Amino acid sequence: MKKILLVATMLLTGCAIAPSARIAPTVYDLGLIQPTDASALSGQPQLTASLLVTEATAPTWLDSQAIQYRLAYHDPAQAHVYANSRWAAAPAALLTQRIRSRIAAVVDSGVVSASDGVRADYVLRLGLEEFSQVFDTVEQSRVVVRLRVSLVERGTRRLLAQRSFSVEQSAPTADAVGAVHALSEAGDRLSGDLIDWLAAKLAEEGKKAEK
After folding, report:
1. Residue 29 lies in a domain
2. Structural domain count, the chain
3. Is residue 27 part of a domain?
């Protein structure tokens, strides 16, 4: 009788002692390029040279699909990750694809990747240095995106120009969803700044070639 009662008790309490079901993480990317983005690009200068945009490199701590945040009011040197949210790919890969798409919309001669096997006039090397959400208080946060860019002449491998871009954007909400929306907007702002800089540098090189 005692054995029967013990089995019955185990069956009734099974839900409590069984491990809880794991929640599948919500997966995000940087979203579609909106029509407003396209209209903004129409005001940017056209690029006449062909470009090879390499895959962005990133430090080890940033080379994952985690959505990272920092608590500036507590310990800004420590990075945290959201447990139930992640990127569809590492941030460097997502931002590289975004930049290629934005440049492709304003370049006449095309933008290629290393896997295309196509020759290009210039190489654009990208190095992602920061792509995270920063909490200044418990309820207020912003995102920070930093990218180092190098423009190289493909034929001579000569470094023509180098610059670091940094963009900050307020997050609409103090959570992973707010981080994703703000990082997407910051990435687009950075891409626009990069295109303006790139157009100026390529124009300088064009003038040198005419002399």
Report:
1. no
2. 1
3. no
* Residue 96 covered by a domain: yes
Domain boundaries, position 199: 47-210
pLDDT by 10s per residue, the chain, length 211: 444 434 333 333 333 444 455 788 999 999 987 654 544 555 667 787 889 999 999 999 999 999 999 999 999 899 999 999 999 999 999 999 999 999 988 887 677 666 666 678 899 999 999 999 999 999 999 999 999 999 999 889 999 999 999 999 999 999 999 999 999 999 999 999 999 999 999 888 877 776 6
Q: Give CA–CA dist 163/157, Å, rounded.
A: 17
Q: Give the dihedral of Cα atoms 5, 10, 11, 13; nearest 10 deg.
A: 120
CATH of the domain at 56: 3.40.50.10610
Spatial distance between the Cα atoms of 115 and 119, rounded to a whole number of angstroms:
11
Tell me the whole-structure pTM to 2 decimals. Answer: 0.82
